[in-house]
Structure formats: C-alpha cells, structure tokens
C-alpha cells in the first residue's frame, strides 16, 4: 500500500462516524481503530455453548412423521442425526436432523408453523 495515501485515509476516517476501519486487497491489508473510539471488553458477552437445529428449507414445520409421532420438547435428549421434525414444501417432506447429540434447552417452533430457511427451531446443549 502506498503510505502517501495513509494520512488522507486517516483524516477521512476521523471525519466520519466510523470507529474502526479494515481493508484488504491483493494480499495487502490495512486496519486501524480511531483513537478515543469506544471499545467493548470481550468479557461483556459470555460465550454460548448452545447449538441450533435450523430449518433446512422454507415451508411448514411438522412435528410428526407420516405414521409415527415425534415428540421433541424442552428437556428431551437427541442424538446426532436424529430426525426432530419435518419441513413440508408443497408435496415434499424433508427431515430436520440434529447436528449433534445433546439436550434440548429451548424449542422455538410448534407443529404447523411456517418456517424460513436457516430459522432456529431448537437449541441443544451438546452432550
């Protein structure tokens, strides 16, 4: 990066409401934080160990399979790959599977509710 432009970049950044700037191009990178900008200590937000089970498609969530009941609720244990429900998309039913084993801490969906792709349906505390 041409250091001649660095002062003009810093002056420009100070005249904005930006707190931090990061730029990368062609293997070169530049990053800086404006002096006096507020910082958030890392300890303010504790790490989360919950793992979401998300909708793999857009459709209607169904808690049961065809001919067999599935009862996943808060406190239930799930195993990796276990079917926890289905997403109906037109004539298709796609299974929703747990990515890892654990205990369901929170159920965010009920049978018959519409879902969007990537929407969290359950949160699991890994075993």
Question: Would you give an account of this structure?
Answer:
With 127 residues, the protein is mainly β. Helices cover 7% and strands 39% of the residues. The chain has 1 helix and 10 strands, in the order αββββββββββ. The protein has a 4-stranded antiparallel beta sheet, with no helix packed on it. The chain has a 4-stranded antiparallel beta sheet with strand order 7-6-4-9, with no helix packed on it. A two-stranded antiparallel ribbon has the order 1-2. The longest helix is centred in the first third of the chain and has 9 residues, at 6-14. It is elongated. The mean pLDDT is 84.
What's the order of the H and E elements?
HEEEEEEEEEE
What is the percent of helical residues?
under 10%
Give the percentage of residues in beta strands.
35-45%
Order of strands in the sheet with most strands: 3-10-8-5
Low-confidence stretches: none
Q: What is the arithmetic mean of pLDDT?
A: 84
Radius of gyration over alpha carbons? Answer: 23 Å
Main sheet? 4 strands, antiparallel
């Amino acid at each position: 990066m041409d250091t001649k432009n660095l002062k003009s970049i810093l002056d420009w950044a100070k005249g904005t409401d930006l707190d931090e700037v990061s730029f990368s191009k062609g293997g070169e990178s530049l990053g800086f934080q404006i002096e006096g900008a507020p910082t958030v200590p890392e300890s303010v937000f504790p790490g989360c160990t919950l793992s979401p089970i998300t909708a793999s498609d857009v459709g209607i969530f169904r808690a049961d399979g065809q001919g067999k009941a599935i009862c996943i609720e808060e406190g239930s244990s799930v195993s990796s790959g276990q079917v926890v429900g289905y997403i109906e998309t037109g004539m298709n039913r796609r299974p929703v599977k747990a990515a890892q084993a654990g205990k369901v801490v929170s159920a965010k969906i009920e049978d018959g509710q519409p879902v969007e792709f990537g929407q969290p349906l359950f949160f699991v505390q890994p075993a």
